[in-house]
Structures are given as C-alpha cells and as structure tokens.
Design brief:
- The structure is a single chain.
- This protein is mostly beta strands and 208 residues long.
- 4% of the residues lie in helices and 72% in strands.
- It has one helix and 14 strands.
- Strands 1, 2, 3, 4, 5, 6, 7, 8, 9, 10, 11, 12, 13 and 14 form a 14-stranded antiparallel β-sheet that branches.
- The longest helix has 9 residues, at 127-135.
- It starts with a strand and ends in a 6-residue tail after the last strand.
Length: 208
C-alpha cells in the first residue's frame, strides 16, 4: 500500500501565484483513489476527485466528481469522464463540462509520432460569458459585449506540428450593445497554414 498527501499555499513561481494546491493519492491493489485541488493566480480553480486503475502498461483514470472555474465562471464535470495513459498515447473520453444550460463535450487522443485526433462540441454557449473570459475580467461583461447563444463543432486532426482543424458554428440572438443582428452561421478549415472561413448572417426580419 502507498499513500501520498501534499498541500501547499501561497506559492510564487516566476511571478505566477499558486494560491493553493493539494494532492491525496492512495494506492492499494492496483487501485488509486485521488483528490487534486488547487487555485492558480486567483483566476482558475480546480477540484477533482476520481480513481485510477493500473492495467499492465496502462493507467485508466476515471472522474467521480470535478468542478472547474475561471474568472468566476464555474463549470461542473460529468462523472465517468476518462483519461487513459499508455506508452506513447494519451486519450480523453467522454469529458463533458456543464454550466447552466451550456455544455462542452471533449474527446481525443495524442498518439505515436504526435498524431492528433480530437473533437469539441459546444452547445448553447453564452457569448456574454465568452466575452468575459476574453477580456480577462472577473466582472460581468459590459453593455459593449456580444450577447447570444453559440453552437459549435470542432474536429482536429494531423499532428502537433501540422494540425488540421475543421469547424461548423451557428449563433442565435446575436446582439452588440443591445443592437440585434439575428443569426450567424458558418464553417472554417485550417490546414498547411491556410485558413478558409465562410460566415453568413441572417437578420431577425430576413425572409427564409
């Protein structure tokens, strides 16, 4: 049996403040329940509980409960998300983050030769929240922020050195400074250093 517990508070590493960090791992019969929590630069927080199982050369980590936050926006992680570690491969399965009516689903793998495959799907993402994140402010976005709901599907392929990205997106109820713009939709592709982007807007009173 093996048990590891460590805590730290108010660390400053190269001007980066690590407000707190805790790790609790208990290994018994190739099973290892764990609890990891921390706060980074007073902006990001993580509280993760799960269990790891050792299978020969594979480590299978399963999330039991997790919460993450950034700039005051809190997300809950669905139980049973998995991270699988193998020689030369890291894979993520069924990672779902939820905030109010929004959710983000992530899956993918980094394999031999830095081969990359991943997908990200966002549903009903609040553009006001996204504006708050991009502004780096903990305060709610002001009246100049975009409003609306965004749906997006992103697929990543290729390698870390030469990634390829394809995405489709749509947003409803778009408004800037409370001026309505209607619906926005489009798709994009990125490969070999070239970005291909198509965007269209439909006004609230446009004919279909």
């Amino acid at each position: 049996d093996l048990q590891v517990q460590a805590t730290a508070r108010l660390l400053n590493i190269s001007s980066t403040e690590l407000d707190s960090l805790g790790v609790d791992i208990r290994l018994k019969d190739r099973q290892a329940p764990f609890h990891i929590y921390g706060s980074y630069n007073r902006e990001a927080q993580l509280d993760l509980r799960g269990r790891a199982t050792l299978h020969e050369d594979t480590v299978d980590c399963v999330v039991d409960e997790a919460h993450a936050g950034y700039h005051g926006l809190l997300w809950d992680v669905d139980p049973e998300a998995r991270v699988v570690l193998r020689p030369e491969e890291i894979a993520v399965h069924g990672l779902v983050l939820r905030r109010q009516e929004s959710d983000i689903t992530v899956g993918g793998a980094l394999g031999p030769g830095n081969a990359l495959s991943a997908s990200v799907k966002g549903t009903a993402l609040n553009l006001r929240d996204i504006g708050s994140l991009s502004s780096g402010s903990e305060q709610p976005a002001d009246e100049s922020a975009f409003e609306g709901k965004l749906d997006a599907d992103i697929v990543v392929s290729g390698t870390l050195q030469q990634p390829g990205v394809k995405a489709r997106f749509s947003a409803d109820g778009i408004a800037l400074r409370q001026i309505p713009f209607g619906r926005l939709y489009g798709d994009m592709g990125f490969a070999d250093g070239v970005l291909d982007l198509h965007v269209a807007a439909v006004g609230e009173h446009a004919k279909t």
